[in-house]
Amino acid sequence: MATHLDDDAKRLAELGYKQELERSWSGFSNFAISFSIISILSGCFTTFGQAWNNGGPIAITWGWPIIAGFILIIGFCMSELVSAYPTAGGIYWWAATMGKPIHGWFTGWLNLIGLIAVTASVDYGCATFLNTLLGMFDKDWGGGLTFTFGLFVVIIVLHALINIYGHHLVAVLQNISVWWHVFGVAAIVLILVFGPDSHQSASFVFTERINNSGFSDGMYWFYVLPLGFLLTQYTITGFDACAHVSEETKDAARTAAQGLWKSIAYSGIGGWILLLAFLFAATDVTEINKELGSASAIFTTALSPGLAKTVIAISVIGQFYCGMSCVTSMSRMTYAFSRDRGIPGAKLWSKVNKNRTPVNAIIMGCTAALVLTLPALYKSPTGTPVAFYAVVSIAVIGLYLAFLIPIYLRLRMGARFRPGPWTLGGKYKVLGWIAVIEIIVISIYFIMPLAPAGVPGNKAWDWTAVNYAPLAVGAVLILVGGWWALSARKWFTGPVRQVDDPGVDLVGSS
């Protein structure tokens, strides 16, 4: 029996799927989830120390806009792809369709580990700043690593529950999150402009170099400074969420493409303004260095206690919204990859409940994020949160390598590619190659040691200082590569069509 469908469901049927998820998100909500996951109230706060210690102000004032520009190019390439293929599988689906099943297999697993790591890092960062905020209300506060991890567990459980039981609420909260970020950032900038008694000079903000990495100054330009770019590369990521919720978005072929690149552009501009405000307020360099470059040290040294609490509270709430969005994106990708039998126990993870919510995928992803963050319970010899930065590196490497594969495959397809309503036209070639080269370069840097104590053979070498990003990502690649060679290549065929006739039986039952 034929079913009347709107254009979105028809297009989804042409791609081979029934409309199982509820398509109730507006274009603004689609933009909002990526804008919330990028979350300059999260990344600019939690990884500020990475740039401060590895390069100093110039890693931020010059590094941020340059790297953000490269990321926007990556976003343009991905916008063209989501316009052509608006499915929840997103980048893994694009890879499998434009290439072979093996491309979809590796892309899917890289994307999945990246999304799990993003969720873990955002929620752990939120727990860290919440712990700091609580300590500001009580000078005798003794919340250490164990307590921070406990807060992290509470936060990620709350995010799982919101996504499971608040399926209508999530889209509303995404929209609220956008305005929280807009007005929150504006409030923080105004506080940092008018709150301090004095400000740094423009010379400090735009030319000062700092090297607290432990590596020699001779390594500054080619090694230390690029490590500082992790701030930008980590903050502006997770924008593939626009694709993962495209099956829930109206007019997805247009709105998801626009939401993706706009979330990057607006975050790039807003983040730079916010970080400049940080640096102009960073007058007590000695104390900030003692606090390992923590952004909170800027606020506590430059502002009154009340204003410092206000700034950190605004950030904590923004980070909470960000983590909620991360769980949404992660669960949709898990659902879609399982729908195509790419994950063990696929039938379990691809189930949706009566509200069309992939509950099991939410639980599995949040549990994996908890396990990935366990090394954060151990303190590094230097006191720097090396384990946290390693999780951040895993997120960056996993996601951007997953982005690289379909971008390269689109380049290889050339004129055979059938674009959607949003297209780059002939500019896809130069933009695509720029994107590929940038991703390769940053992936190499972010598997490198983040501190001398993490360099094998160094006298100060210590396991707690090791960047375990290459170990985690490498283990995943070896595992899924071996699995592919021994088994998966015989049965994983890429996207599994649910629909052969786009006019029949297109709406999935609960």
From TrEMBL:
Keywords: Membrane, Transmembrane, Transmembrane helix, Transport. The chain crosses the membrane at residues 28-50, 62-82, 102-122, 142-166, 178-195, 220-243, 264-282, 302-323, 359-380, 386-409, 430-448, 468-486. It holds the Pfam family AA_permease_2. Its main location: membrane. It is found in: Membrane. GO terms for molecular function: transmembrane transporter activity. The keyword Ligase does not apply. It is a multi-pass membrane protein. The keyword Transmembrane applies. Gene3D superfamilies: Amino acid/polyamine transporter I. This is Amino acid permease. GO terms for cellular component: membrane. InterPro entries: AA/rel_permease1 (IPR002293).
